[in-house]
């Protein structure tokens, strides 16, 4: 089906997971379970941070911002995905498709920026513990949060804007959501600017953010090595452990997803799609679990709330 320009049709059609269309109903079970876990986990962390004055510290305020971003990303992706799986609702309007693309990719950029800020938070906590509250004031945390948001908007907004200039030869997107590269592949016009800009964003976000995170943890490691007490060393490493786990589950799937799109031509299409969904949903699902397990303050508040509920 040849399309003259993007305004000559009203909607794209999402295929879902190519090759596994007959299994969509069964696949909806783990995805709906993910949605439930994400809503409960992230909602619980947000509720605790909002209602407990003792958690109104820079570390937990940054954690709350991360939970908000995770919720936005998941709620942008999962409702349409589940409608596709449950009701075979495949059509998505052009503007809705571009909006979904903006929020999904924008949330990924903001999440990455927040992880950089949280790495700086851990650096100050370990290397400058006596000046922690002075350096990381609430106003600074707010400004850093706004900077992370601005980074996401500025870097991702050109993606849908550049797509609006293209003509499309196909309207059936072999994906569960409006991924940038998946939509670019539907175009029959000159897509090199779109591909170059998408790669630029990935290199800038993943490359620069990982460099800054690595630099922060390099300084933390130097400080930990200088500690004479084994107990102090363990405490310092434990302070960073939750953040390290979150970094791993955020960046490793994202890097694999990006590489398979560009060089993994022999990888089955359904593996591409499942990996794309995994890198978006896995952090949102596991972040509250990791922080809930690793952070004593959150564990104590959860136990306290549960004991109140059983009284």
UniProtKB/TrEMBL annotation:
It is found in: Membrane. GO terms for cellular component: plasma membrane. PROSITE patterns: G_PROTEIN_RECEP_F1_2. Pfam families: 7tm_4. GO terms for molecular function: G protein-coupled receptor activity; olfactory receptor activity. It comes from the Eukaryota. Keywords: G-protein coupled receptor, Membrane, Olfaction, Receptor, Sensory transduction, Transducer, Transmembrane, Transmembrane helix. The keyword Membrane applies. Odorant receptor. Putative odorant or sperm cell receptor. This is Olfactory receptor 52P1-like. The gene is LOC103122893.
């Amino acid at each position: 089906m040849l399309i003259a320009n993007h305004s000559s049709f009203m909607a794209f059609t999402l295929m879902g997971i190519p090759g596994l269309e007959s299994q969509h109903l069964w696949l909806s079970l783990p995805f709906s379970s993910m949605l439930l876990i994400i809503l409960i986990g992230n909602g619980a962390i947000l509720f605790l941070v909002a209602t407990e004055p003792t958690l109104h510290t820079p570390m937990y305020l940054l954690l709350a911002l991360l939970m908000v971003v995770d919720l936005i990303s998941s709620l942008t992706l999962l409702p349409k995905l589940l409608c596709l799986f449950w009701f075979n609702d495949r059509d998505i309007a052009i503007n809705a498709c571009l909006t979904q693309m903006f929020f999904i990719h924008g949330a990924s950029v903001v999440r990455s920026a927040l992880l950089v800020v949280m790495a700086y938070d851990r650096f100050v906590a370990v290397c400058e513990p006596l000046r922690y509250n002075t350096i990381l004031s609430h106003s600074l945390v707010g400004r850093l949060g706004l900077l992370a948001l601005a980074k996401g908007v500025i870097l991702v907004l050109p993606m849908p804007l550049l797509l609006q200039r293209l003509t499309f030869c196909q309207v059936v997107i072999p994906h569960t959501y409006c991924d940038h590269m998946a939509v670019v592949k539907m175009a029959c016009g000159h897509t090199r600017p779109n591909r170059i800009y998408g790669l630029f964003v990935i290199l800038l976000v993943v490359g620069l953010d990982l460099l800054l995170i690595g630099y922060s943890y390099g300084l933390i490691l130097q400080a930990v090595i200088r500690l004479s007490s084994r107990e102090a060393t363990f405490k310092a490493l434990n302070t960073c452990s939750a953040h390290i786990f979150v970094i791993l589950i955020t960046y490793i799937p994202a890097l694999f997803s990006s590489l398979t799109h560009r060089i993994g031509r022999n990888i089955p299409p359904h593996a591409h799609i499942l990996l794309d969904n995994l890198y978006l949903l896995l952090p949102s699902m596991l972040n509250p679990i990791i922080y809930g397990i690793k952070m004593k303050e959150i564990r104590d508040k959860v136990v306290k709330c549960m004991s109140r509920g059983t009284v």
